[in-house]
Structures are given as structure tokens and as C-alpha cells.
Amino acid sequence: MKISEPPSTLYADRLAPRSSTELAVHAKKLTELRNYLLSTCFHRKLGSVLLLTGNSGTGKSTALTILCRELRIEVLQFEQEITYEFEDVQTCSTSGVISLYRFLRNSSKSFQKRRSRLLLIESLPEDVYKNVTHVRDELSSIFCSSSIPIVFCLSEIDSCWDISYRKLFSSTYILENNINSIHFNPVAPTYMKKALQRAERILNREQADGLLNNLIESANGDIRNAVNMLQMASTTTSKGVDGCMYRTNRDEMLHMLGRILHAKRLPTEKNQSSDSRPPLERDVNEVVDMSNVTTSTLLSYLHEHELSFCDNLKSVRRVFDDLSLCDALGARWEVRGRLPIECFSQFVARSIMYHNFRTEKKCRMFALTRPKNMDLVKEVEVFQKELLKDSVIGDSQMATVSVPFTRVIRKDAQPLPLQYLARNFSHSWTQGFDEWTKTSNLKSRSQNKFKKKQISTESEDEENVVIEDSDDCDSFDEM
Q1: Residue of 60, 70, 56, 61 whose CA lies nearest to 18
Q2: I want to staple 57 with a disulfide (CB 3.0 to 4.6 A). Which of 125, 224, 290, 383 is the partner?
């Protein structure tokens, strides 16, 4: 198969699937979508509406387009009207809602009865979400009178509730209007790897398996993002690709942390008690699922920056108690075997979003920095590897045998890291190893003389033994 498009075209367009066998979609979802098209387009029913949802890059619109092409179903797609304003010519612009109403009403009347067609809406105008109640009433009347299937192919937008399709198509509205719903899950790693290998065969290029695995892991189920990163890998160095993948994951993580720490809520109601809270702008489950960051990393960032967002000592104490509880439970193997580690993220996120409640919040920019304890953990790991290099003692005896007797076992070992690990706990973590070696913490610790003194007094007490005579007969005299 040869590619006739110019090399400047995006791989996502050049390598688009041509048949249903090339789709990176689960066969169950394809069968479900094909059955809907066969039952509605060839057997006309009034009020047939389909809500096709899923994350961006899961193959929703591509699967629908290919299946309609194979079934010979004509697709009429909605495009919002664009008006241009000039100084000399006066133009009257129409809103996006009115253009959507006009498209749905006029398209259903102008079609011929013998042809199989459907209406496709891939994006909703922004003014649809301004008056949701009125839009729902208008759409309900259109659904009842339309004889042509209407498909809403909408992507999930977790970053902004104001333009999310869930604001318009609620669960109650879907049930009242008999709207069919098909949800596409993120692309599985096996399907994505087959798609990337197919792209390599078409391009006559081969990438290392390690790079493909990194692309699949960084794409988060978005096949369009994976193909774009594959194009970048073929034109740039591996360092540029790794930087792109790191920035993508980092932006998602920072957005999630901002949602948790700021804990934005809806307007506060009057006469509200101090223990109650207004509803959150975003669901906690959706906020936690915004990034694939590990639980330990999430808890480290929240532990580092929680003090900057909490305004009273009582709330700080409760939040840090919850963080300490999760840290202690996560270290026990019997807890990890019965309780998923993701539950700790949910527990801490809910605790922080509850206690970081302030009636008056000022909008400000805040710089999230790397937790300082991560650098300390790295130093401990490096020092631990040095101790285990020439030692037969395992990790379990590291604190009891390796560290105390390192100077005896290895004469060339540096005593400074040992004293650094044995130093008093510092709550600020602002003093690094380089600065700590220059301070007075390296002074030799005085030996404890209390034990010697105590032993001498005990020995003196033992030497002063008094034997008293008894008037009674001894027990052994009777023998």
C-alpha cells in the first residue's frame, strides 16, 4: 500500500482506517453500533436518537463513518454557520442554537424516503449550555417528529463542566426521551499496538518495541495522540519524544492537583451550617481519574502543598492525620492485599476538598513544585545500593545490621552519610545533605554516662549484704 499524500500531512489523516477490520475498536462495540444502524436506518422509527460518547481518540466518529460507508448509509453532518462582519456591509449573524434547530428540522423534511441516511452532530455550539432547560425542550420536540436517526458523537471533556455533554444529556433526560447510548472505552494496549505496527508497515519504518510501549503508555488510550507521537518519533530524536510525553502527563497531573487543592464549589447558599458544603463543580471520581499518576506521587504532592491552601490549623491537622493514616496503611501488606491502593487517592482527595473550604477565595496563580522528600528518597536509595554492593546482608537487615556496622565491615565507607541518615528528624526538609555537612550536626555525640553510673550504684548495693539472725529455727535444722 502506497501513500500518495504529501509528507506534510498528519499521520492521523494519512493512516486512517479504510475498513472495519482495521479499526482499533473492540468487536463488541462495533457489533452494537452496526446493529443500531441496521435497525434504525433501514427500518424507519420516529424519535430514533443515539448518543455516542467516549474519550477523545477512541475511534467513535471513524467507526461510525466506516460502518455507514459499508452499509451504504449517507451521513449528513452538522456544521455551525460562520459569519463574517465587514465595516461597509451589515451582516446579521445567527446563534449556534438556532442553526442547530434549523439543521435538525429542515434536514428531516428534505430527504427522500427510499434512501438510508442519518444526521450526525459531532460538536455542539457553545450557547447550547447557557440555557439548558430551553434547549432540552426544543430537542425533545424535534426528536418526536424526526423520522431520520440522529447521532450525537460527543467526546468527554473532563477539564470543564460548562461544555460537557453531561450537562445537557443527563441520565434522567436520556431515559425520558428513549435515547440510545453507546460508550467507547479507551483503546486497549493490544489494539493500539496492532494499529501502530500497521502504521509502521505502511510507512516502511520500524521502531523499537521499547519506544512503542512508551508511546502506548503515554497515550492513555488515545490512538490519535499515539499516532501523532509516532510521527514525532520519526522526525525528532528520542529526547524530544520523551519530553513531549512527559509534558503531556505533567499537564494532566498539575490540572488534577489544582482541582483538588482549590476545591472549587458552586455558589454558597444562605443560612448554611458550618459543617455542610456546597456541591463541587466537578465530581471527585472524575478529578482523580484525570491523570494516571501513581498514588504515592499524588500523596507526596498533596502533602507538600496542602499548607498553602488550608486556612486554619484544625483543618490542617485533620488532613495530615488522613495522610498519615494512608501512609501507614499502604505500608502493610495485609492491607494492600485486601484494599486497592487507588482507594487512598480517593480518601485523601475527598478529605482535602472538604477541609479546603473558604467562603471567600481570591483567584491567584500558584506554582506547584516538586516535593522535597523525593530528593531525600533518592539519596537514601543511592546510599542503600552502595551498602549492598559488597555485602551479603539483605534489605530487611539494612537498619539493624548494615548501617550500624558499616564502618566495621568497610573501612573505606564514608561516615558522613551514616550520620546524615541517623540525624534528628527535620519537619521542614529544607536542609539538604550538602548544607547539613557544614553545620554543627557532625559533632561527635557525647557518650551516655548514665548507664555506667547506674551499673556502679547497682553493684555497690549488691555488695552491702546484711544477714540477720532469726529467733526461729531454720528449716534445715529439722532434717
Answers
A1: 70
A2: 224
